[in-house]
Design a protein that fits this description.
Blueprint lengths: L5 H11 L1 H8 L12 H8 L6 E2 L9 E2 L3 E3 L5 E3 H7 L4 E6 L5 E6 L1 E15 L4 E5 L3 E4 L2 E4 L8 E5 L13 H13 L1 E2 L5 E4 L6 H10 L3 E4 L4 E5 L5 H8 L6 H4 L3 H15 L1 E4 L3 E7 L2 H12 L6 E7 L2 E8 L2 H10 L7 H4 L15 E3 L1 H10 L12 E3 H11 L2 H8 L2 E21 L5 E4 L2 E4 L4 H11 L10 E6 L2 H16 L2 H6 E6 L2 E5 L4 E6 L18 E4 L10
Parallel strand pairs: 1-29, 25-28, 25-29
Antiparallel strand pairs: 2-22, 3-4, 5-6, 7-8, 7-22, 9-10, 11-22, 12-13, 13-15, 14-15, 16-17, 17-19, 18-19, 20-21, 23-24, 26-27, 27-28
Length: 558
């Protein structure tokens, strides 16, 4: 009898332990790839006295409850508010496989309890709070927050060209609301004071006040007191949302939102045309500027939020200076501006030094393609980025689809300037089956797949040898699109592993069916729980393991 080697023992342990099997078959050589996380290990190693698992593909990847998502009506909603309203089945901004922005449907938001969270802050001033195991997109793929370091570039949208439909507000209402938000302050006696620094705005704001039933009385050279009735609608809105941008503004149509932003910059915007051309504004509130930045992003403007000091206290400035951003400002807001004489000089593009477009981090993807195509040129490692225009030139010269996709993607790579532990907070899992990613706080975030690892281990090892003739894995999903995505993701893992590829005997897409050479099978069905059907296609199907993906309940055959 041959001697049992240490290798043989290790193989036995691996076949019996799904965590070790996953590490051997489903993880890469990348040192950042740590294999299964603690919560995944609990799922994979659970003794499972039951044979039904309702764990979901993305379990554990969580978004903090106060993070916001742009809704189809343009509103900017916190996740916890969506949960309280029972919202689901709405479309969100997402990224497709070609790095182009698209929309995808949120089918479910699941409570994931209190989890340790981290805040990523980018150079532009964006902030998002996620669990440490939640992936964000880098030039070399999706990377968990735990592994993101200061200086890393992560994917954000170049633009969010989506608007609401609310256009019932009059132009005078919107002009006055913008001016109130920009300069309005409550005095100790409860009255409201606004500032008008440009004399040509005085008659315009005076007329807007009259149209809204408000009397404007001069207080100082640039200050005016507003006299109004207690139940005045616009003043009630300003009071109830003081210090922030009212939710209704986010739902404005493109035309009305253009008017609002133009009016805001009329009231509290500046330009510089010296050594550096720029458009900017300022506020004591960073969160306020982040909201304004989000509205500008809808027009393809990606401003930077800078921290300054004013009288020893923090003060924040938001500015943009690249030609594409200022051209977008001219196109979308200049026609609505009441201070066109003031803003016109900043549109002298011939004098602008910073004409460049966006930059793309080089990363492994760029370096591998450069070597594969034998690209000539001095691409020093000291410079971590390359201009999109340079990538487009290389794409044409070397016939490179990779360079072309990077140069023409809908991604603005923003540099992480800090990662801060925020403590344990309430979190939620937002399920987006079609693209399994979405935009949260103007940053692309992703959810990953745990369930697939378990079913591949069951099928490959015949459930650790307990079913020598093969194990049957049955997957139930609410939607056919989810079944298709799970099937495609399984095949992706199979294609990336030589041992898994060799273990497959056959596969079909209609129905979704994978047969292993050891007799194991994986079958995927729609449960019918969302359509109101009885899920008849699942009846009579035998299984050793039943996986329920985001399925709240299954019909019971009687």
């Amino acid at each position: 009898m041959s001697e049992i080697t240490k290798y043989d023992k290790d193989m036995v342990r691996m076949m019996k332990d799904p965590v070790k099997w996953v590490k051997a078959h489903l993880t890469s050589d990348d040192p950042k790839d740590k294999g299964a996380r603690w919560y995944q290990e609990q799922i994979l190693r659970h003794p499972h006295n039951r044979i039904a698992l309702r764990c979901g593909r993305r379990i554990g990847k969580c978004i903090e409850e106060n993070q916001r998502i742009m809704m189809p009506d343009g509103s900017y909603q916190r996740i916890k508010d969506l949960v309280e309203k029972g919202e689901s089945g709405f479309e969100v901004a997402s990224l497709d496989k070609d790095l182009k922005q698209t929309t995808s449907e949120v089918v479910h938001i699941q409570d994931n309890g209190f989890k340790p969270t981290y805040k990523l802050t980018t150079q532009r001033g964006n902030e998002v709070i996620l669990t440490g195991n939640h992936p964000v997109l880098t030039i070399d793929g999706w990377v968990e927050v735990d592994d993101i370091e200061k200086g890393e570039y992560i994917a954000t949208p170049k633009s969010m060209p989506r608007f609401g439909t609310k256009d019932s507000r009059s132009d005078s209402y919107i002009r006055l609301l913008a001016h109130l938000i920009a300069t309005g302050k409550f005095k100790k006696d409860g009255t409201v004071c606004i500032k008008i620094n440009d004399k040509q705005l005085v008659p315009i704001i005076q007329s807007a006040c009259i149209s809204q039933g408000i009397q404007m009385l001069k207080s100082t050279t640039t200050s005016y007191n507003l006299i109004y009735q207690v139940d005045n609608p616009i003043m009630n809105l300003f009071r109830s949302t003081y210090g922030s941008i009212p939710q209704e503004v986010f739902t404005y149509s493109k035309e009305k939102l253009s008017l609002f932003i133009a009016s805001f910059f009329d009231a509290k915007g500046w330009i510089a045309t010296g050594s550096k051309y720029e458009v900017g504004t300022g506020s004591k509130s960073k969160s306020f500027l982040r909201d304004l930045s989000h509205l500008l992003l809808r027009f393809g403007i990606t401003p930077n939020i800078m921290t300054r000091k004013a009288h020893g206290n923090p003060y924040f400035q938001m500015l943009f200076y690249r030609v594409p951003a200022i051209k977008a400002f001219e196109k979308n807001f200049f026609p609505y501006s009441a201070r066109q004489d003031y803003f016109a000089p900043v549109f002298d593009y011939s004098k602008m030094k910073d004409k460049g477009g966006n930059k793309v981090p080089k990363g492994k993807l760029f370096e591998e393609e450069r070597k594969r195509k034998n690209v000539k040129g001095n691409f020093t490692k000291k410079i971590p980025t390359v201009q999109e225009s340079t990538l487009q030139t290389l794409a044409e010269e070397y016939n490179s689809k990779i360079f072309h996709d990077l140069a023409t993607s809908d991604i603005y790579y923003d540099q992480v300037i800090s990662k801060e532990y925020m403590g344990e907070r309430q979190t939620y899992d937002v399920s987006v089956p079609e693209t399994h990613n979405l935009v949260v706080e103007d940053i692309f975030v992703h959810n990953t797949w745990t369930m697939i690892a378990h079913m591949l281990w069951v099928a490959f090892t015949c459930n650790a040898g307990k079913n020598p003739k093969g194990s049957t894995c049955l997957v139930a999903t609410p939607y056919d699109s989810q079944a298709r995505l799970i099937f495609d993701e399984i095949l992706t893992h199979v294609d990336n592993s030589e041992s898994l590829r060799e273990s497959i005997e056959s596969k079909t897409k209609n129905p979704y069916y994978i047969k292993f050479k050891n007799g194991s099978v994986i079958k995927l069905f729609t449960a019918g729980t969302k359509s109101g059907s009885s899920g008849g296609s699942m009846r009579g199907q035998r299984s050793d393991w039943l996986y329920m993906d985001k399925t709240l309940s299954l019909p019971i055959a009687r």
